[in-house]
């Protein structure tokens, strides 16, 4: 599940800061958002479906007192779009309250859930995250919160960056492969944990470091304490965070996202040059790579595709008879820029192929003489099981059609994808530390094996 996490420990305005942090992480999930705060005596929660700015106002934030808080923004596919799946989850267990927020996917969640249910557990949601809390609550009495969490995490497989809040502590943890990002920051008063550094910038927190793969970080009255309880493995950071998902102004996995994304465009121009008049970025995700492509090829960069920034969840799909207008609601072409021109159109990725197909139709209608599509990632041929919302193999266009067939489907003059080798060059020196499974089918952690698990996963992610 694509998600964003933000947490504050030891600041009197914890919930307000968490609200701002989630605002900066809105790109990581637009379906629901929630904040849980603690005043040392109890946990206070507010979560709803919708965007951060729609859910929280001064009145709501006033009802979230205390000096620590965790927050979550959630993205999900349709089918599991329920408030009951909105995070953070809050539970009472034998030692008090506990809240959890999770970014990632547990690949053995189906199996663990069935075992727990057989032993009498009753689940409130259909989220894999809830499995962690059941495991956490079952650990034998007397253990410290951190040890309980470590015991629970020892049983799960897959990806997690997560935040756990109790009345007195905030714990941040990242799975041993470090699939999803998580960073630590410092305010004058207190600490901040965030999926990405862009949220630290917003609240004026200093970036300290990334939380390491396999690290469990306890923030309590005595300051931060790190634990590395799991066997060390080679990291497998998600390369798709660099290609599409993270914000370009963030620093994660040892790089500034913009710089990597721009370099992808430089490399793409070297691999797939085009005889053309101009480079058109596809807003917004294609911008940095288009800058790199234009710089490397010497072609002018033109903003020939314009995005309406106010398209949101509230947009009502028109009736079938006028549905084709829908394409232009998000993006529109500038005819004076495009007409009669040979255009290189740069985008970050093709997943199902439907968006790029509509965009090409729009650019052709605006009078482009030739269209050369350049994609700053390799063909996506395998679904992600670690938290990026890519569909099943049947729906991935590159898993089913050759590049030439995709070019025909898009009705364009040429189509070039960045090579896997080219992608690795853009993170040279660290290329072994990334997961490329969506491009190779080579999964570092076994995907859910059993059919039932797979169904649980597909239905509920
Ligand atoms: P499509 O090929 O129609 O499925 O759409 C691909 C476009 O969606 C790409 O240009 C990306 O900008 C964007 N995209 C890629 N991956 C995702 C994702 N996991 N969730 C939402 N949008 C995505």
Describe, in short, the structure shown.
The chain has 461 residues and is an alpha+beta fold. The protein folds into two domains: 4-236, Aminohydrolase, N-terminal nucleophile (Ntn) domain (Glutamine Phosphoribosylpyrophosphate, subunit 1, domain 1, 4-Layer Sandwich), CATH 3.60.20.10; 251-309 and 324-430, Rossmann fold. The strands form six sheets. Strands 3-2-4-1-10-9-11 form a seven-stranded antiparallel beta sheet. The protein has a six-stranded antiparallel beta sheet with strand order 5-6-7-8-12-13, covered by helices on one side. Strands 17-20-21-22 form a four-stranded parallel beta sheet, sandwiched between helices.
Written account of the structure:
The longest helix has 15 residues, at 257-271. With 461 residues, the chain is α+β, with helices and mostly antiparallel strands. Residues 450-461 have low confidence and may be disordered. Strand 12 (216-220) and strand 13 form a beta hairpin. It has two domains: 4-236, Aminohydrolase, N-terminal nucleophile (Ntn) domain (Glutamine Phosphoribosylpyrophosphate, subunit 1, domain 1); 251-309 and 324-430, 3-Layer(aba) Sandwich (Rossmann fold). The structure holds adenosine monophosphate.
Features:
binds adenosine monophosphate; alpha+beta; Glutamine Phosphoribosylpyrophosphate, subunit 1, domain 1; Rossmann fold; six-stranded antiparallel beta sheet; globular; 2 domains
């Amino acid at each position: 599940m694509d998600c964003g996490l933000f947490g504050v420990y030891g600041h009197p305005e914890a919930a307000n800061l968490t609200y701002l942090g989630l605002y900066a992480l809105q790109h990581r999930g637009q379906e629901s958002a929630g904040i849980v705060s603690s005043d040392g005596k109890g946990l206070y929660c507010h979560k709803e479906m919708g965007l951060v700015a729609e859910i929280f106002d001064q009145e709501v934030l006033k009802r979230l007192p205390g000096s620590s808080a965790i927050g979550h923004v959630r993205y999900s596919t349709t089918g599991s779009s329920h408030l009951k799946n909105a995070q953070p989850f809050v539970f009472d267990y034998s030692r008090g309250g506990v809240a959890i927020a999770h970014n990632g996917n547990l690949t053995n969640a189906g199996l663990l859930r069935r075992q727990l249910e057989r032993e009498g557990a009753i689940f409130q949601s259909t989220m894999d995250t809830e499995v962690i809390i059941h495991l956490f609550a079952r650990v034998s009495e007397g253990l410290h919160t951190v040890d309980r969490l470590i015991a629970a995490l020892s049983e799960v497989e897959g990806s997690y960056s997560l935040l756990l809040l109790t009345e007195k502590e905030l714990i941040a943890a990242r799975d041993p492969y470090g699939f999803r990002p998580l960073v630590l920051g410092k305010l004058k008063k207190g600490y901040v944990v965030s999926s990405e550094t862009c949220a630290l910038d917003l609240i004026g927190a200093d970036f300290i470091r990334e939380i390491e793969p396999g690290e469990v970080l306890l923030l309590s009255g005595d300051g931060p304490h790190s634990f590395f309880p799991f066997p060390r493995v080679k990291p497998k950071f998600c390369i798709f965070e660099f290609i599409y998902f993270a914000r370009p102004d963030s620093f994660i996995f040892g790089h500034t996202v913009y710089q990597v994304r721009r370099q992808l465009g430089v490399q793409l121009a070297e691999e797939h040059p085009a005889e053309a008049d101009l480079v058109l970025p596809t807003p917004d995700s294609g911008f940095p790579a288009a800058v790199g492509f234009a710089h490397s090829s010497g072609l002018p960069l033109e903003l020939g595709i314009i995005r309406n920034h106010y398209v949101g969840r509230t947009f009502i799909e028109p009736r079938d008879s006028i549905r084709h207008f829908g394409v232009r609601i998000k993006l529109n072409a500038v005819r004076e820029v495009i007409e009669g021109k040979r255009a290189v159109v740069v985008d970050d990725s093709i997943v199902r192929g439907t968006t790029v197909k509509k965009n090409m139709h729009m650019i052709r209608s605006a009078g482009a003489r030739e269209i050369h599509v350049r994609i700053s990632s390799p063909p996506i041929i395998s679904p992600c099981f670690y938290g990026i919302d890519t569909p099943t193999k049947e729906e991935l266009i590159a898993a089913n059609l050759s590049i030439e067939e995709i070019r025909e489907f898009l009705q364009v003059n040429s189509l070039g994808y960045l090579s896997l080798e080219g992608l690795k060059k853009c993170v040279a020196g660290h290329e072994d530390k990334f997961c490329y499974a969506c491009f190779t089918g080579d999964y570092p952690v076994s995907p859910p094996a059993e059919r039932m698990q797979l169904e649980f996963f597909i239905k509920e992610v």
